[in-house]
Structure formats: C-alpha cells, structure tokens
Amino acid sequence: MGSEFVLAIMFASLVGLLLTGVPLAFTLGALALLFTITLWGEAALTVTVLNLFDTMHSESLLAIPLYVMMASVLQRSGVIESLYNAMELWSRRLPGGLAVGTIAICTIIAAMTGIVGAAVAAMGLLALPSMLKRGYQPELAIGTICAGGTLGILIPPSVITIVYAVTAQASIGQMFIAGVVPGLLLASLYIGYIVLRAALNPSVAPRPPEDETVTWAMRIAALKSLILPMFIILGVLGTIYNGVATPTEAAAVGVALAFVSAAIERHLGWKLIEGVALDVVKVTTMILWITIGARAFVAIFTGTGGADFLLGFIEHLDANRWVVLAVMLAILFFLGMFLDEIGIILLCVPVFLPVIDFLHFDRLWFGILFLVSAQMAYISPPFGYTLFYMKGVLPPGIGMGTVYRAIIPFMALQALGILICAAFPELVLWLPHSMIK
Amino acid sequence: MRHSGLFMHAICAFITGLNRLLFAFAAAIIFAVVPMLLYEVVARYVFDAPTVWAMEASTLVFGPHFMLAGPYLLHLRGHVAVDILSEKASGLPKKALEIFSFLVVAVFAAVFAKVSWPLAVNAWELGETSFSAWNPPIWWMKFIVPFAFAMLLAQALVEIVAALRAPSQGEAL
After folding, report:
1. Which partner from A303, A345, A408, B120 sits 20 to 30 angstroms from A352, CA to CA?
2. What residues 280-319 of chain A have any CB closer than 8 A to a CB of chain B?
3. Which of B41, B59, B84 is nearest residue A59 as measured by Cβ atoms?
4. Taking the CA of residue B97 as centre, how many other CA atoms within 13 Å lie in the half-sphere pointing to its CB?
5. In sequence order, what E strands does chain B have?
6. CA–CA gap between residue B5 and residue A26 (Å, rounded)
C-alpha cells in the first residue's frame, strides 16, 4: 500500500468520524489505534502509550491549567468589571468610544490571561448590554467583542501559543515576545476601523449626551482599577522576560497575583474557588485529551512517510514558495471552520514545519502567521469557538445571523493583519531578536 | 426483568458517581501546583537555592489531573465534538449517532487500557523512579493510565445504556 493511499484513507475517515459527532479527542485516538494495529501490529501501540506518559510529564503543558486558573479567577472576582467601568468613563466621548474601549480592555485581559473565553464571556456580559443600551448597531458591538476576545491568542501569555511552541519544539518565551507587536497591530486595526466607521456613520455608534456628573476627579479615581491588572501583567510577563521564571512558573506567579486581586476586591471565597476549580479541570482535560489523540494520530502520519510524501509533492509542484505558503494558510483557515484550534495545531504543525524549512521561511515568523490565522478560525462561522461563547450571552431578539454578519469586517481585518505580517517580517521578528541574543 | 433493570441502574449510578469523585479529586489537586512553583521561584531567585523537587512534583500532579477527569468529562459532554449532524438529527438516527459515538470511545478506551497495563506492571516490578536529581518513584503514575482508560470504558458503556433506555425525542412526543 502506498503511503498516499493510506493518508487519503486516514483523512477521509477523520472527517467522516468527526461528522458523526464522535469527540475530536477520541476520533483521533481511535483512528490512531486502528491504523497503528493494521499497519504495524499491536506491539507498536507501546510507543503510543510511551508518548502519553511523556505528555503527562510535560513541564510546558503544565502551564495550561495555570493560565486557565488565572483567567477564571480574574473573570469571577470583579477585576475585569472594575476595568470596564473605568474605561467607560474615559472613552465615552470618542467616536465609537465604547467599542474602542472594549478593544482596549480586551488587550489588557489578553496580556493578563491566556485563554480566549475569558475576554469574550466577560465583555459579552459587560460591554454588550451597555453598547446596545447606548444604541450601538448590534453588528458593530458583537463583532468588536468577538475580535477583541481573540487577541488573547497572540498577546502573551497564551495557551494556544504554548501548545504551538511545544508542538513545534520552539521556545515558548520567544514565541510570546514575537506575538506582542502583531497582537498590538491587530488591536490598532480594530480600533482604526471602529473609529472610522463611527465617524463616517454616527448612527452605528451614537455618542452619549454631555454628562455633567462625570467629573475629572471621577475619571482619575477610576484609574485605580488599572493598578491590579498592571501588577499582574508585570508579574507574569516581567518574570518571563527577565529570565526569573519559566512560562510555567510565571503562570503560577500570575495565579497567586490573581488570587491576591480577588482578595482585594473582596471576592475570595469558597464559591470562587469552586467555580475556578470546575473551569480549570474542564478546559485542561478537554485540551489534554485532544493532545493525547492528536499525538498518536500524527505519529502514524510521520511513520507512514506522510511528511516525506508531502515534501516530495511540493518539490514536484515547483510552485512559487509564497503560493505554497498561501495554500498552507488557506488550509488552516479551512480546517478552522470546523476543527478545534488545539487539534489543528497538533495535526498541522508537524506536517507544515518541514515544508517551511524546505522553503527557507523563518519558523518563528511562520508561527505568528499560524497564530493570526488561528484567530480567524476562532471567529469564523459556523463553528468558531468565540461564536459559541457569544451565543451564550446574546440578548433575546438577536440571532446567530447577526453574529455571522458582525464578524465579517473583523475577519477581513485579520486577513489584512496576516498580509501585513507576511509582507513585513521585521514586524514579527524585530522584538524577539532585539530582546534575545 | 424489573429486578435486573434496577441492578443495572445501580451499577450505572455507581460508575458515574465514582467518576464524579475522581473528577472532583482531579480538580482539587491542581491547586497544589501553585504554592510549589511559587516556592521554587522564590527559592531560586531570592535565596539562590533552587529546589530539585518543585517542578517535578508539579508535573506528577498534572498527569493524574487531566487523566482522572477524562471519564466524567465524557458524562458532562465536555469533550469537543462537531455537532452539525447530531444537532439536526432527531429520534432514532440521533440515538444511533449517539450510541455509535460512545461505542468508538469504548473501543478506544478498551484497547488503550489493555496496551498500557503491561507497561504499568513492568514499571512496578522494576520499582521505576524518574532518574532525576530528586528521583521519586514514578511507577504509580503509570497505573493511572490503564485505570483512567478502564474508567472511561465503563463510563462510555454507562452512556450507551442511558441512551438505549431514554425514550428518543420522536417517540416521546
């Protein structure tokens, strides 16, 4: 049996099983077992189990429950709520002020926590009702929150980045630093778009009447709410960049700081701990079981010579390397429409990286392009994760159709972000190269 | 007949309850990682005296954390799945899809439990340790794997029984 034949069957059965509703983790795992046994016999499964032991020991992946814990504590303790209230006082007079402020808050949340759900859920509950009450067009409000929430993927610390770096055997610290500039670039693109939209057509984001009760003293006082988040950001990113702690240890520092903030906000109690424990165990277990399945699946792919086949195919194709890159990103986008992002990373990175090396592209730079395309996957209809978080907080009268329309301009902005990062690699590489010698 | 139904029900409730307990245990132990790693950072950075055990002990908590929580997450429907078809289906086809999906999980879990068991026994016979500077025994962790997969198999079977017994939506209405 030729390897291309095996590969075709593997991916066809992957898609088929997924469509019947078997969870991703077990689809990958079951297929891996099936193919390992038929191709190499049952003894080869020992290697699969050894891989699993390896995953259980991973210091890098241990960062996942910690970053989830931090996000959950911050979300449940009112820290994010105080931030939002402060922003509302400051940005209300800007064109599209509430939406601009929401992006700013999302950026801060992204720098504090590593998961996308935290920002979307919190902003969906806080920012969405207040924007709608102010008469904002629902599409603008919803799109802003969805897009802002995904900033957590690029802006460090980020769980998705950790999974990517572990899979690509890249340095997590370097990936984190490389994500900063592109992350801020995307945030500015969003803000630029919102301001422009609101300035051209004020009816999509009506400005509030002059409110005499909002004084400068109140605004200054509200800045207090920035203090705790700044400590957390400095505590986590500072310890990583100064080499004081590994990303995993820094996550523990972040969790401790988040608990301190919760105590200061007087939200630390049994109820908070219980909720946090549940969030952590659910998210971590889901991610790690997918990891188990995907590792086993990818082992077959490489074992049957799938990677060599793909490389040979591309060599044969003799296409321009930028075309190949574009095709790879298109594949990622396509997979993102129906596959989980962690699954995509674990499946595609081991397959794509040899191609990237072959084409003499920079691995770090490609990693960032990968992560920006992951952001698109997170908000792409019909199965983007963010859309489901959003669905949970939509007020009555607004359907998923509105959400789908809402994210289109923001996906276009993300595509623009990919183009900018692809055209100007220095944007991505400058910061990591100047910080790590 | 009725008697055996009750017996079956009791077994299912017992398995789900046990997995729920493991889930709660898994959720609780991960908190231990935070003080351990904090201690490590402070010991290394402030007192220049890194520990040999903190990071390794943390990873020893991490494996059992996600392995033991897996079976009950199946009960919670917490493993992500693509639900385009199952969301649209109803009645018998929906039930069939559900049962098929749990069957796949059951087979996967059974094979993995069987394959990982001899490795765990082997580790126990050797009294395997981690060969790090701290060198703790780690053979016990290898037993977590077959145990978690066996519990996953049990939970998948429970879900199949539950699906078979539940009146499907089409029939009930």
Report:
1. A408
2. 280-282, 284-286, 288-290
3. B59
4. 23
5. none
6. 29
Which residues in chain A are closer than 8 Å to B80, comparing Cβ atoms?
Answer: 23-25, 286, 290, 340
Residues B93, B89: Cα–Cα separation, whole Å: 6
- What is the structure's pLDDT at A59? 84
Is the CB of B155 inside 8 Å of chain A's CB atoms? no
> Which of A46, A56, A59 faces B141 most closely, judged by CB atoms?
A56
Q: Which residues of chain A have pLDDT under 70?
A: 1-3, 210-212, 338, 382-383, 436-437
Question: Tokens representing A150?
Answer: 């995904």
Task: Return all residues near A413 (Cβ < 8 A) that are at least 6 apart.
Answer: A147, A186, A189, A190, A193
Residue with tokens 């890098």: A60
Backbone φ and ψ of A246, nearest 5°:
-70, 160
Q: What is the pTM of this model?
A: 0.87
In this predicted structure, what is the pLDDT of residue A211?
66
Judge contact between A35 and A6, C-beta under 8 A: yes
pLDDT of B171: 45
Report ipTM (2 d.p.). Answer: 0.92
A window 19-58, beta carbon within 8 A of B: 19-27, 29-30, 33, 42, 45-46, 48-50, 52-53, 55-58
Which tokens belong to A193?
A: 């778009």
How is residue B25 written in tokens?
A: 């245990």
d(CA A87, CA A136): 17
Cβ burial, residue A107 (10 Å; 0-12/13-18/19+): buried
Output the pLDDT for position B172: 40
Chain segment A70-102, per-residue pLDDT in tens: 888 988 888 888 888 888 888 877 888 889 999
Distance CA A328, CA A348 (A): 9
What's the pLDDT tens digit per position in B56-81? Answer: 999 999 999 999 999 999 999 888 88
H or E stretch at B30:
none
B115 to A48: CB separation less than 8 angstroms, yes or no? yes
User: B42 at the A interface (CB within 8 A)?
Assistant: no
How high is the pLDDT of residue A437? 52
Write the DSSP assignment of A27-42 as a string of letters: HHHHHHHHHHHHHH-G
Helix, strand or coil, per DSSP, at residue B146: helix
CA separation (Å) from A3 to A6, A306, A307, A325, B164?
Answer: 5, 6, 10, 23, 40
Residue A375's identity, in one-letter code, is Q
- Minimal CA–CA distance to B151: which of B112, B99, B101, B95? B112
